[in-house]
Amino acid sequence: MGEVESVIADSFLGYINHYASNPLISSDLIADGYAEWARSTLNDSRNRLFVVNHEARVAGLAVVHVDGDIWDIELASIATPFQRRGLYLRLVRQILDEGARTGVSQLVISTQSHNIAVQRAWIKLGFRPIASIETVHLVDGNPPALS
Fold first, then answer.
1. CA 67 to CA 83: how far, in whole Å?
2. Fewer CB atoms inside 10 Å of the end CB: C or N, the chain?
3. Distance CA 29, CA 34 (A)
4. Sheet with 70-78, side-by-side order of all strands
5. What's the whole-number mean pLDDT along residues 128-142?
6. What is the mean pLDDT of the chain?
7. How far apart are CA 41 and CA 38, in angstroms?
8. Neighbours of 63 (CB within 10 A)
């Protein structure tokens, strides 16, 4: 589990996300929060772990939430030292192959809208975009009145 933990910790270092737009939250705290979320996701009994190895080491992982015949890839990451070697595509293909083998009817994956590189990889694998959602943070301490 040490190698898996290492990939999780590496996954969120420098990760550009909507929380980073909030100057009240430190980038270290954001990375720690994402890593904590990933660990809890990994430990959820409804989820499946997939790993991709390179040179006898865990190079990347994916956590897939299983809800009947619908799978949601909640996390898919390749550790920094192993990036740009085609391992991300191999990891997601592994999930696609297993899903096809077990009768999955729908496979869902999502990311930040500005993460174009990963979206290009998904297009290569046959995914198609269906929605884009923007998250906004208010930081002035005076929330607007709701009517």
1. 30
2. C
3. 9
4. 47-54, 57-67, 70-78, 106-109
5. 74
6. 85
7. 5
8. 22
- Position 136 pLDDT exceeds 90: no
Q: What pLDDT digit, counting tens, does each position of 81-126 carry?
A: 999 999 999 999 999 999 999 999 999 998 877 788 888 999 999 9
Q: How many residues does the chain have?
A: 147
Owner of token pair 């991709």: 52
Other CB atoms within 10 A of residue 91 CB: 22
Judging by beta carbons within 10 Å of its beta carbon (0-12, 13-18, 19+), is residue 92 exposed, middle or buried?
buried
User: What are the b/e assignments for 101-120, b being 16+ CB within 10 Å?
Assistant: eeebeebebeebeeeeeeee
